[in-house]
Amino acid sequence: MKADDIRKLLHAEPFRPFFVHLADGGRLLVKHPDLVALSGSGREMTVYRHDKPDDYQAVDIMLVTRLEVAARNGAKRPGK
Description:
Elements: H1 3-10, E1 18-22, E2 27-30, E3 36-38, E4 44-48, E5 56-60, E6 64-69
Antiparallel strand pairs: 1-2, 1-6, 3-4, 4-5
């Protein structure tokens, strides 16, 4: 995965929540673009939880396997 792919989703108009799928099988929901910080090198990102603002996860972007735009309500799209 490339940081530019993440930036495109973060700056999309209108913004749509999306899932970040990780190599270990986990996934993170990004509900708002302000909840993600990308490092200057584009190698790492920090994702803050929407429900617990003091909790975050640092992610090596090389371990992101795919990005998935969520349904309007933030749930996984049917059939995906």
